[in-house]
Every structure is written in structure tokens, then in C-alpha cells.
Amino acid sequence: MSFNIGLSGLRSVNQELGVISNNIANVNTAGFKSSRAEFAALYSGGQAGGVEMTNASQNFDRNGDVTSTGRALDLAISGSGFFVLKGADGQESYTRAGMFQRDANNYLVTPSGDRLQGYNVNDDGTLQSGVVGDLQVNSANLPAKASTELDFNANLKADAAAIDTAENPFSPSDASSFNFSQSSKVYDSLGVEHTLTQYFVKTGDNEWEVHASFDGEEMDSVMAMTFNTDGSMATPTSNPVLNLSPSGADPIELTVNVTRVTQYASDFNVSRNQSDGYTSGEMTGLSVDTDGCVYAQYTNGQTLLQGQVVMAGFTNPNGLLQTDGTTWQQSFSSGQPVIGVPGSGALGSLTAGAYESSNVDLTGELVNLMTAQRNYQANAKTISAANQMSQVLFNTL
């Protein structure tokens, strides 16, 4: 019996050495989770029968270090959860190794070709939440968008000198006929940039006239602007609409948001001067937010939502079936996956431009390695002692 007990110890320690060796070998494997050998005593009829290794459980409670790479599609999970993948055979799997790239068809994939899962957008750019599928990027050029709104926030100097418009009528070419001016960029349906200039003429206490020119041509419309004694705008109470006629493009109906213009004693300044139009652009790259939203970046400075990464959480991650070092599949023991976006519920957040390193504690594994070596020697010693006792018994016969 002593021989069998010692042999079971040698066999179990040898299996433990395999677990430790695998941990050490994967110390630099992204998304790898370290394992530990778990043992159980063997008994037969109440008599000790040795030991066996019952399981090698992985440590999902400890996150690996976040290693910065600067690559936009490298994603690290801070907290719990897994990325959801789908292979060519349609089988779903789960991973913590967030190193992704675009394939020839603009799908986001792992180095092995499994497609990252998430919510895609429809043709209008609206996120289709609740419908999980292969994340795909639209690499087409971003078409031009005509301006429809101009957001204009400014302060008009309250103690500016009033201008007698009867003696000095307004003229864009005469700087003495207006107090302040500001130009804004406006885009037509072809993406051509135009210049809209507003001229502010103070006509009396808290009273102003706003003239405009489009590409240097003075426009007929003149807007009256008045302010309350506390510096807030009194009129107009709604945003004016300018009708612009660019050459060779569709007419522009531009709503100018001036309701946040103020009149205080400080100098004239413009805090916001932005239209919603832009010229066409080519995609230059991708970025991912902490909530998993994937955006395409374009040469015209615009960004466009392409989809959102989803994550999966499990009641019992240790019940997952391991398919390789960094990929797992659902099992009865793990329970059904709970799908959600990063940062929701118990799911962790994402860090773009980085990946999660292995959570192996190399120092601890080396200590375990020495301990396992001593245990192996001790079990071998029990066999040697049992053998010597048997020899003594044989020599007495």
C-alpha cells in the first residue's frame, strides 16, 4: 500500500508541475488566466489510499496588468467580463485577450480570425441595440453634409459707441460703419466651404443691428437685436433663418442660433462659432470609447459611430470550457452568458490602445515550483523507505 500511496503522490505532483510550468510558460500571454492544482485525498474502506489531482482551476478574480500599445483596436477589460467571439463554424467563444484588427472585409477579428461581436448601426447610423452580430466597419468615404445650423455664442461690448446709421450707413467695406464682425464657415451640398460674415452695429442703448454677407456679397436681410438691462437677450426670441444661394449647389436654409448672445461690459469675444456641415472625408482610423462604442475618424475632422462592443458575464466563470489558453466556451456549469455593454451592471469598462497581460505571478509560481519539487522528493523518499523495509523483511526470511 505504501508503494501505491507514494506513487499517487508522485503522479499528482507531476501533474501539479505541469500546471505550474504552463503558468510560467504563459507569463507573457495576453489575457491568460493562471491555474492552480487542486487535490483530494483517496480512501478505500476507511484506509488511506493516497492523493489525486481533481482539478486545475483558473483565477478569474485577479486582473492582469493593463499594457499600453497605442494600437486603437487593442482593448483591455478593467473588471469582470469577456469579449464575445464567433468562429467560422458559428460557434461562440469568450476571451479576455483584446487584440483585434480589421480583416479584408472590414470585420473586427482576433489574430486567429474569430469575429468580435457587438451592436451594429443601420444605414442612418443608429445603433441597433439588442441585436448582436459581427462588428463590421464601413470604410467608405464620408459624404459631404450641407450646413443647416450655425451655433453662435458671443458677447457684444455693452459700452461700445453707438453708430448713427443715417450719417454712416452700413457697408461691409467700411469698418467705421459697424462695431464688430465675425466670419463663420458654412458648407453646401457639394461640401464646398463658404464664408458667412456677421456685422454687429450698435444703434442705441441695448439695441443692435446684425447685417450679413455671404462669400463677400452683402445680404438684404437685417436682424434687430435688443438686450435686457441684465445683459441677456430680449429679442429675437427665436433663431433667425438665412437663405443662402451657393453657386452650383442646393440652396441652404441656415438657422443661426443667437439666443445665447449676451451684452456685457467685457470685450467682444466669440466662445462658439460652429456649423453642423462639413466637406467629404476619407477614413483615417478607428477609436473605441470606454463604453465600447467604435468610431471611424475622417480627414474632415468628423467621427461616425460604427458599432458598440458587447461583453459577456457568467455566474461561474470557472465552469467555462477552455478551448485554448485564452478562449473559453459556455457550459452547463458556467451558466448562461449575460450580455451587456462595457460598464453596465457587473461588467468592466474598456481601455483602448492597451491589452490585459497575463495575471500569472511569476515569483509565486517559482516558489510553487520549489515546493512541488520538495514534495516530489518527499514522495520518492517514502517509496525508497518502503523498499528498504521490504528488503529488511526479505532478509529475515
TrEMBL record:
Keywords per UniProt: Bacterial flagellum, Cell projection, Cilium, Flagellum
Domain Flagellar hook protein FlgE D2 span(s) in chain numbering: 156-278
Gene3D superfamilies given in the database record: Flagellar hook protein FlgE
Domain Flagellar hook protein FlgE/F/G-like D1: 76-134
Domain (Flagellar basal body rod protein N-terminal) ranges: 4-33
Chain coiled-coil ranges: none
GO terms for biological process, alphabetical: bacterial-type flagellum-dependent swarming motility
Main location: other
Family: Belongs to the flagella basal body rod proteins family.
Protein function: A flexible structure which links the flagellar filament to the drive apparatus in the basal body.
The protein, known as: Flagellar hook protein FlgE
Species annotation: Aeromonas simiae
Gene this chain is encoded by: flaE
